[in-house]
Design a protein that fits this description.
The radius of gyration is 50 Å and the shape is rod-shaped. It is of the alpha+beta class. The strands form three sheets. Strands 1, 2, 3, 4 and 5 form a five-stranded antiparallel sheet that branches. It is built from ten helices and twelve strands. The chain starts with a helix and ends with a strand.
Length: 458
C-alpha cells in the first residue's frame, strides 16, 4: 500500500514535470527559429544592398550629367563658395542655388535608376549631398548641414553609402576685380587666394526592402509556424492521453485500495469463525464463512466486470442483521443496535450498501465508540442511513478533511488508531456515485452522527 501511495504521488508530479520540460524545449525551439529567421533576414538584406551597390558603382563614370565634377570645376560654383566665405551670401542662398539646378538632373536620374532595377523590382533612390565646404582661408566650415546636389526620389528609408569623396579647390583673383575692398590698394595688383576642402557623399535607399525580404521569407515563416503549431498539437494530444492514462491508473488504484480495505473485515470474520470451528462444531460458524466467502467474491467482481457496481438486488431485515452479526464477530469490542429498518425489502447494490454501513460502524469503534446505533429509513423516495456513536468525536476543524484519501484524525499530532485512512474516503466515493449527500455532526468526547441521503427508486 505504501508503494501504491508513492506511485500515486509520483503520478501527480509527472504532469508538472512534463509541462515544464516541454515549455523549456519549446522555448529553445522558438528561440532557434527566431535566431535563424533574424539571421536569414540580415543576410538577405546584406545581399540586396550589395547587389544595388554593385549596379550603381559605375553611375557617375557612365553618366556625366549625374556627376558633380563639372559643378566643382565650374568657375561659377567657385565664385559661389568665395562669396559665402566672404559673407556676401548666406548658406540658404547656396542651398537654393543647388536646388534650382537639381530638378532637371533628378528627373533624368530617376529614369536611369528605375531602368537599372526594373527587372529586380527594387525601388531604389539615389541622393548626392555636399557634406562640408571647409575654408582654409578662414579656417572654418561654411556649412551647418548638408546640401542636396540631386536626389532621384523623395522616398524614405535606411541610407546606404555608395561613394564619398573630398576635393581641394583653389581660386585666385586680383584686387582690381573686387568690388569692395576695405583697405588701401597699391598701384600694383594684389592677388588674393582662396582654398576650399569640399566633401560630398552619395547614398541610396531601397524603399521596398522590407517587403522584398518579407515575400522571400514568407514561406520559411509559415513553415516555421506550422511546425510549431504541429508540435503544440502533438504535445496536447500526448498530454491528453497521459491524463487519460493517469485517470485510469488512479481508478485502478482506487479499486484495488477499496477492495483490499473491504477484504479485511471478511478475512477477520473468517479467521474468527475458523478458530471457533476448531474449538467447537457450530452451524452458525459455517453460515458466517459462507456469507464472507460470498462477500469476497462480490468484492473482487468489479475488477473483472465493472458493470456489477450498478446491479441491485432485494435487501431485507435478515440481510442487515447478518451484516451486523458478522461485524461484531470480526473483533469489534462494542454493541451495534439496529434502531429501524424498512419492513419491506429494499432494492440496493448489496456490496456498496454494506460497504457504507460497515465502514461507518468500524470507523466509530476505531475512534473509541462503545455503542453504535444504525437507522435505515425510506422517506419521500430517499434512502436515509444514519449511524450514531458515543466515541471520542471529531474536532470541527477536521470535519472538512475526514473524507480525503489517507486522512486520519490526529490527536496531539499522533495517530492513535490503526488503518490507512480509506474507510470514510470509500464511503464518500460511493455516496457521490449515487449523487447522494452526507452530513456529519460531532462533539468532542460525546460522539458523532453520520447521515447519508441517497436517491431511491430513480
Amino acid at each position: 500500500m505504501l508503494k501504491s501511495l508513492i506511485y500515486i504521488c509520483d503520478m501527480n508530479n509527472r504532469p508538472i514535470t512534463y509541462i515544464l520540460s516541454f515549455l523549456l524545449l519549446f522555448t529553445v525551439l522558438v528561440g532557434m527559429q527566431v535566431y535563424f529567421l533574424v539571421n536569414s533576414y540580415a543576410l538577405r538584406q546584406k545581399e540586396i544592398v550589395e547587389t544595388v551597390r554593385l549596379k550603381l558603382k559605375d553611375l557617375e563614370d557612365d553618366v556625366d550629367r549625374f556627376d558633380d565634377s563639372y559643378y566643382m570645376k565650374n568657375k561659377t560654383y567657385l565664385e559661389l563658395f568665395v562669396a559665402l566665405d566672404d559673407n556676401k551670401i548666406n548658406e540658404d542662398s547656396v542651398r537654393r542655388f543647388y536646388n534650382d539646378r537639381s530638378d532637371t538632373v533628378s528627373r533624368k536620374l530617376k529614369k536611369y535608376v528605375d531602368s537599372l532595377f526594373m527587372d529586380l523590382g527594387y525601388q531604389v533612390a539615389v541622393k548626392k549631398e555636399l557634406t562640408s565646404i571647409y575654408s582654409h582661408t578662414k579656417n572654418r566650415d561654411l556649412l551647418t548641414k548638408n546640401i542636396t546636389i540631386y536626389e532621384s526620389s523623395g522616398d524614405k528609408g535606411k541610407e546606404n553609402s555608395l561613394t564619398s569623396g573630398t576635393w581641394e579647390m583653389s581660386y585666385s583673383k586680383s584686387t582690381s576685380e573686387k568690388e569692395k575692398i576695405n583697405e588701401q590698394v597699391k598701384e600694383d595688383e594684389k592677388i588674393i587666394s582662396y582654398s576650399f576642402l569640399v566633401s560630398r557623399k552619395t547614398t541610396f535607399i531601397i524603399a521596398n526592402l522590407y517587403w522584398i525580404i518579407f515575400k522571400e521569407l514568407l514561406l520559411f515563416v509559415v513553415a516555421s509556424l506550422l511546425i510549431l503549431i504541429a508540435i503544440l498539437y502533438i504535445f496536447y494530444i500526448t498530454y491528453k492521453n497521459l491524463l487519460k492514462q493517469k485517470k485510469q491508473v488512479l481508478v485502478l488504484h482506487d479499486m484495488v485500495d477499496n477492495v483490499s480495505h473491504e477484504m479485511r473485515t471478511p478475512i477477520s470474520t473468517m479467521k474468527l469463525a475458523s478458530v471457533n470451528l476448531q474449538k467447537k462444531h457450530n452451524d452458525c460458524n459455517f453460515s458466517v464463512l459462507d456469507r464472507q466467502i460470498l462477500r469476497l467474491e462480490k468484492l473482487l467482481q468489479p475488477l473483472t466486470d465493472p458493470a456489477v457496481t450498478t446491479e441491485t438486488s432485494e435487501y431485507d431485515l435478515r440481510d442487515i442483521n447478518h451484516l451486523l452479526f458478522d461485524l461484531q464477530t470480526a473483533d469489534i469490542n462494542g454493541q451495534v443496535n439496529l434502531l429501524s429498518f424498512p419492513k419491506e425489502s429494499i432494492r440496493v447494490n448489496k456490496v456498496l450498501f454494506e460497504t457504507i454501513i460497515s465502514n461507518l460502524i468500524t470507523n466509530s469503534f476505531k475512534y473509541g465508540a462503545i455503542e453504535v446505533s444504525l437507522s435505515v429509513n425510506l422517506i419521500d423516495d430517499m434512502l436515509h442511513i444514519k449511524v450514531l456513536d458515543n466515541g471520542q468525536g471529531i474536532d470541527e476543524n477536521e470535519i472538512p478533511y475526514i473524507f480525503e484519501k489517507f486522512y486520519r484524525v490526529q490527536k496531539d499530532n499522533i495517530h492513535n488508531t490503526k488503518g490507512l485512512g480509506l474507510g470514510l474516503y470509500i464511503v464518500k466515493k460511493v455516496v457521490d456515485q449515487f449523487n447522494g449527500n452526507i452530513n456529519v455532526k460531532s462533539q468532542i468526547n460525546k460522539g458523532s452522527e453520520f447521515l447519508i441521503v441517497l436517491p431511491y427508486g430513480k
